[in-house]
Amino acid sequence: MSELKPVLEQLRDRLLPPPGSFERLVARRRRRRRNQRLAASALALVVATAGVVLAVRALGPTRGPQPAASSALSGSDVVDVPLRGETAPAFLADGHPVFVVHHEDDTVSVVDAFSTHRPWGVEELIGWCPSSRTFDEPEHGAKFNEYGQYLAGPASADLAYYEIHSTGRQVEVGSAVVPTTRSENPRVGFQGTLCEGTGAPFTLHRIPRSAVFDSPAEAVQAGPEGWIALRGVLLVRAGEPALLCATGEEGSCTSPAMVKGIDSEGWLDFLGRSQVTIDSKWIARVEGDHLINLTRTGLG
Amino acid sequence: MKDEVEATERVTPREGPAPESADFEAFFEGEHGRLFGTLCLAAGDASDAEELMQEAFLKVWEHWDRVQDHPDPRAYLYRTAFNLHRNRLRRAVRAARRLVVPASSEDAFAGIVQRETLVRALRGLTPRQRAAVVLTELLDMSSQEAADVLGIRPSTVRALASQGRAALKAGLEERDE
Q: How far off is chain B from A165, nearest CA to CA, in Å?
């Protein structure tokens, strides 16, 4: 069928990759190498500490109580406005993370801190890069301008933003506006040096250690309203519900909570693997006996 | 970390491409656009295409010393990319069930003329039909070569490509009417 090839070639040539592909490739390679180095170091550390732990246990160790969270993240629907030109992270009353942006033209925006790139149902918080004045998704490189408009990377839509009512140095945050597409003509683009590779400071949300649940099972049992923070290992296995396990011994899953909304089959199919694990600090919400909206915080 | 988890991270300086990687960067610049478009056609999803493209180039980069001496680095790249794509197609029934749903928000063709009948016809193909058509028609692979890439029999490739071609041909004829 000779007429098909040129038509397919034409269509292929109109499908353009997002800008910054090479930079993302370089960043990805760097992350992979760093993870490989960390894995090697971690293995050595595990072997070294195992001996120490056994020795300490043999001598009858005493362990102090671990600080444990018992409530949701707290915040307010009236948020402080940072100085002109600056951007600050904040939590709304239900613990929902947002960024408050005081633009150079003295207007203010409140932008959602969740990336619209949600691979396989796992959400991710964005951070603020002051040098390029962009919101960046640390793991996959999606980028948005200071109004939350899409600039680059694997995201399907602009960031959500909030209707606000100004009260001077503070703004009252109203309803969320959720775009379903990417901006074709963003108001501003990259405005300086990207954080990736420059060593420029990168602002993420602060989460008090005392607000982090170490046991996903206890978090679900406590069932607080609003967003909670957890430390744990996401475990995705073929044919089983996704679980968030307490960070502990490798190969075991303790104090698990079931996670809904993860496309386990699609994810494992894509990777060609039977299991995926991610150890991270997360935020999520409790619904019934499971977690929903599981979100990586980028804080390791 | 006393009271609070670290709040502000300093991203470590990026390892820029080493001088000896200049050849790789040129290779990337020359090939990534067409590979992305080809993967969009095969996968039907821009986000998946970007992921596959990045992963394929990463694998090529890891073995660049060897690949640049390969008689056809481009063929190596495409084979790597479609091997990765094959991982998604192994469980064909489940994959088909998932991908035949209406176009997602990451739809690869979202920026193209939506009414174009060829795009409609492409969307109507199963993932395996799309892959077979892209490999045999666009990349000029024989059914044996395409079968090796997709991990299926040559006769299956011929059947899938034939079904795909028929559907696309119908789309083209509809456009011409």
A: 28
